[in-house]
TrEMBL record:
Membrane-spanning intervals of the chain: 121-137, 143-160, 199-220, 226-244, 256-275, 281-306
Keywords: Disulfide bond, Membrane, Oxidoreductase, Quinone, Redox-active center, Transmembrane, Transmembrane helix
Name the record gives this protein: Vitamin K epoxide reductase domain-containing protein
Protein location: Membrane
Membrane topology, as annotated: Multi-pass membrane protein
InterPro entries: VKOR (IPR012932), VKOR_sf (IPR038354)
Similarity comment text for this entry: Belongs to the VKOR family.
Length: 333
């Protein structure tokens, strides 16, 4: 069973949902589906309800439409149905193609994967400390430069997280797509078609390394201005490569990519025209080498760790699918 649109709409971790659902002892029953949603933080209750009472249902509910668990959302006189794909059905067509099973759920504003640590509060706290320090102890241009670096870090983290099947409401809103349709937009197309692979890292991963490094080096401005300026000039290569891929290879423009390019250009302008009277220090160079090595290693470590987790889940799903097939064969026999 495939629930891509439903999972994206509920902002759930796709890999985790599929793993929990397939590993449930009652898979693929409605009980397994309900328990999986509960496990992932979506409280729900299941009912058998005659169609004559469906008009009294809330605006959003889950039903079995065309033999698939689907999220149904009232939209005027029609219904938007999210399962493997998103589609719109009329009332009569929906009633005809669905069973009496109804699952009512409470959708939290931000449903997080229960098995994952929520790092965002810590991230926001670190961002706040950096910004406060920058605006109090540094000049306005240095503070703006650091603000741009933090914006780049945040967007890059969202892209890094999305790479492993997680839905990003931030990326979806930037790209002009709701979470349920996020997989079909140009941003997703550009990012997923990225063929770059250096030690297992994609082009977007290097964006995370770059902005994290600049965010830390920015705290030592103006002492690190010479090195920071050098990095911003090198970013011209990344800007050119990204624009080339979008304009001539994929022939579509990605809004989040253009936003990152705007951040890079903003930092380039600030460093080129306002970071003057630069001096080169061995200490700053040593700090840069150590810093970049640590950040690169950290991103590689987490990337490898998440890839291994994803691969393990896929392997477990294959084993579970094999067991289900064997059990079905025994029953049939």
């Amino acid at each position: 069973m495939i629930f891509d649109k439903l999972i994206n709409y509920l902002k759930l971790d796709k890999q985790e949902f599929i793993f929990q659902f397939n590993s449930h002892p009652n898979y693929p029953s409605a009980l397994a589906f309900s328990d999986t949603l509960n496990f992932l933080g979506v409280k729900n209750d299941a009912y058998q309800l005659d169609k004559e009472y469906w008009d009294e249902l809330p605006e959003e509910f889950i039903a079995i439409v065309d033999n698939a668990f689907s999220l149904v959302k009232k939209s005027g006189s029609n219904y938007s149905v999210y399962s493997e794909k998103a589609k719109t059905l009329g009332k009569e067509e929906l009633y005809k193609n669905s069973s009496d099973f109804v699952l009512l759920f409470e959708k939290a504003e931000n449903v997080e994967n229960k098995t994952a640590f929520n790092f965002k509060p810590i991230l926001y706290a670190v961002f706040a400390v950096i910004l406060i320090y920058s605006f109090i102890y540094q000049g306005p241009l240095e503070a703006i430069f650091n603000l741009l670096s933090l914006a780049g870090v945040y967007i890059s983290l969202e892209l890094f997280n999305q790479k492993f099947g997680n839905t990003s409401a931030v990326i979806g809103s930037i790209c002009g797509a709701a979470p349920a349709t996020q997989t079909a937009n140009s941003c997703d197309r550009i990012i997923k078609q990225d063929k770059t692979s250096i030690l297992g890292l994609k082009f977007s991963d290097f964006s995370l390394i770059y902005f994290t490094g600049l965010a830390i080096l920015g705290l030592f401005l103006p002492a690190t201005a010479y090195i920071v300026k050098g990095f911003t000039f090198v970013s011209i290569l990344a800007i050119g490569y990204s624009l080339y891929v979008q304009a001539f290879v994929e022939k579509t423009f990605c809004r989040v990519c253009l936003l990152i390019i705007s951040i890079l250009v903003g930092q380039l302008v600030i460093s080129a025209f306002f970071f003057q009277n630069l001096t080169f220090g061995v200490g700053a160079l040593l700090l840069t080498v150590i810093l970049w090595a640590m950040i690169f290693s950290a991103v590689m470590y987490f990337n490898t760790l998440l890839e291994q987790k994803e691969e393990l889940q896929k392997t477990m799903l294959k084993i579970l699918d094999s067991k289900e097939t064997m059990n079905y064969s025994k029953v049939s026999y």
